[in-house]
Design goal:
CATH superfamily of the largest domain: Nucleotide-binding domain of ferredoxin-NADP reductase (FNR) module
Bound molecules: flavin-adenine dinucleotide
Number of helices: 5
Oligomer: single chain
Strand content: 35-45%
Strand order of the largest sheet: 4-3-6-1-2-5
Order of helices and strands: EEEEEHEEHEHEHEHE
Distance between the termini: 24 Å
CATH class of the largest domain: Alpha Beta
Length: 238
Amino acid sequence: MAEKPRFYDATVSKIVSLSTTVKHFVLDYPADADTRFIAGQFMMVHLEKEGAPHKKPYSIASSPSLSGKIELSIKLVEGGYVSTWFFKLKEGDVIRTSLPYGVFHLKEPFAPHMVFVGTGTGIAPLRSMIKNLYERGCKSRIDLIFGNRYETDVLYKDEWEALAREHSSFRFIPTVSRPKDWKGETAYVQEIVKREYTGKTDGVSFFGCGLVPMCKELKAALLEMNVPKERIHFEQFT
Ligand SMILES: Cc1cc2nc3c(=O)[nH]c(=O)nc-3n(C[C@H](O)[C@H](O)[C@H](O)COP(=O)(O)OP(=O)(O)OC[C@H]3O[C@@H](n4cnc5c(N)ncnc54)[C@H](O)[C@@H]3O)c2cc1C
C-alpha cells in the first residue's frame, strides 16, 4: 500500500540557475519533519490558483541521505502556472509541500547492470537514484544516457563527469540533438539504447524518465529488444 503523504512547509534556502530554462532549488525542512522517501520518488507542491487549491508533482533530485533538505530541478514551461511561480521564488520564501509519492524508485536487490535514460529535467529522479546507489556502495554497472536539445542544457554535467572519473562502473553518455560545437553523441536516447544493448539485455534493468513521447518510444524499443516488462521502469512527466 502507498505510504500516507506527509505535509510540511519548507524554506527555499538556495536557487541556482542550471541553464537558461532550468533552476535547481534547495528546500530546507523543519528539524522534526519526516522527509523520508525512496530515491526516484516525487513530491507535491501546493499553492493556489484562482482562489482554489492547486498542486503539481516534482521529482526529488537529491538523495534520501541529504538530511532535512530536498533538491528539485524545475524547468520553466512557457505559460506554465506552477513553473512560472517557481521561477519567481526567492531564497527565504516558504512553500507548502507533501511527500512521498510514486512507484518509480530503486528496486532491491539491485540489478547487476542498471541503465538510466533521461531527457531534460527527467534527470531529477535519476540523479537521486544514482547518488543513492553510490552512497550505498553499489557495485553494479551503471550507465546514464542523457538527452537534451542543446549542449548548454546538459544538467549537472560536472557531477556526472566527476562520477565517471571516480567509478569505473559508471558510464555517462550525454547526447545533444541540435549541436553547435558539440563533438559527442547526437542520436536520440532510444537510438543509443538500441545500438548499445540489443542482444545484451540479460540481467539489465532500465529506468527511463522524461516527457511522454520519449518514454513511449523508449518503452517500445525496449519491448522490441525483448526486455521483460518487470525490468522496465518509467516516470512520465505529463
Ligand atoms: C511524476 C511527475 C514528476 C515531475 N517532475 C518534474 C521535475 O522534476 N521537474 C520539472 O520541471 N517538471 C516535472 N514534472 C512536470 C510538472 O509537474 C509540471 O507539469 C510542469 O512544471 C508544468 O507545470 P505548469 O503548471 O508550469 O504548466 P501548466 O500551466 O500545467 O501547463 C502549461 C502548458 O505547458 C504544457 N506543458 C506542461 N508541462 C510541460 C513540459 N514539461 N514541457 C513542455 N510543455 C509542457 C502543457 O501541456 C500546457 O499546454 C513532473 C511531472 C510528473 C507527472
